[in-house]
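Project standup — Tuesday

K.O.: blocked on the structure for the chain from last sprint. Re-posting the sequence here as requested.
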Amino acid sequence: MLDIIGAGIIAGIMLLTIFSLVGTMNQAHFEKTMSTNIQGDVINFARIIESDFLKIGYHTKADAIQHADSQSIQFKSDLLNNNNVVAVCYSLSGANTETMNPNDMFIRREVIGQAPLNAGIGMTTFRLTYFDTLGRIITPPITTKIRLDSIQSIQIKIRLESAEPVIAPGSDAAAYQSVYWSKTIYPRNL
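H.V.: unblocked you, prediction finished:
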């Protein structure tokens, strides 16, 4: 009888260990999936913003940058190289209430004359820093034509976080997977 009880206890311990292992593996898989998703989102967004920012002033040197502050920029460019100069505006807009992340905001890319694109991709930080030809920071907001014309490079900093929280094993604290990307772009036509 003692052998049967001992075997039952050992089997119970083994089952608990297996269930714990499966739970940990599922959690790790979920974290990896969330991390991979936001890394893909930041890569896609970075490609778009790099392409647009490198073309600032393309086919129009006059008044290439029309507005610049730490969370938005408006500039003119021929984005499609079809001799059609358009105004493009990037800005951080309101909170994205469609996700569980309270820090999630929309990034808005608007080509004037077209429907705006609100990308709710987990953007929690979008910062722009402007530099002159000597590498000195031009403090936003930049409103005068002389100061706008002195911009030679733009540093972009973005942070994306997952839409859903990830709960660490053995903890009740929820955390969001995040990815940070930063780059200084030197538009050729400024």
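K.O.: great, moving the ticket to review. Residues 88 and 111 are 4 Å apart (CA to CA). The mean pLDDT is 85.
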